[in-house]
Amino acid sequence: xxxxxxxxxxxxxxxxxxxxxxxxxxxxxxxxxxxxxxxxxxxxxxxxxxxxxxxxxxxxxxxxxxxxxxxxxxxxxxxxxxxxxxxxxxxxxxxxxxxxxxxxxxxxxxxxxxxxxxxxxxxxxxxxxxxxxxxxxxxxxxxxxxxxxxxxxxxxxxxxxxxxxxxxxxxxxxxxxxxxxxxxxxxxxxxxxxxxxxxxxxxxxxxx
Length: 208
Hints:
By secondary structure, the protein is an alpha+beta fold. It folds into 2 domains: 6-13 and 115-200, Alpha-Beta Plaits; 35-108, no CATH class. 49% of the residues lie in helices and 16% in strands. Helix 5 (129-144) runs antiparallel to helix 6 (174-188).
């Protein structure tokens, strides 16, 4: 497992910090920025407006349109679906709906970084999920008695997935690995507390 970094911020209980400044910092550290999505949307809107202004200016001075005359485009839109194959119209509509849904979900759903808060009575601790995964992988390796390459741990906001490849001829007790990972995760007390799923591969690897 690759290791990551953790940041520590002075404060109170991470579940309900009393200091508004600490709450703001914790939100900033655990939630992803919407700047990229907002920038993409702004660039698209600006590009459409500039193109419309260009075509309108060309029409006003009597020049040929760059791509399509605004009046012709408006007439074609009014006459839809006339002149366009249903397949092309459906594909275009699906693409527009997909982009619209992406921007809508980005605006509505809370963006999350790959980080968790750790419960501590003295400080507010924000830890990368890679750091949590590395600690859980060590516990899983010890419980399964396997090497580092035989354990992979993936940590998300609500789920920890532990994948173990046993050594050929040496059985792995799944419940023992589950208990070891649960104990380690309970000692960390991350917020939100994810569920744990242990997967033991059917085929093993040849021991050194």
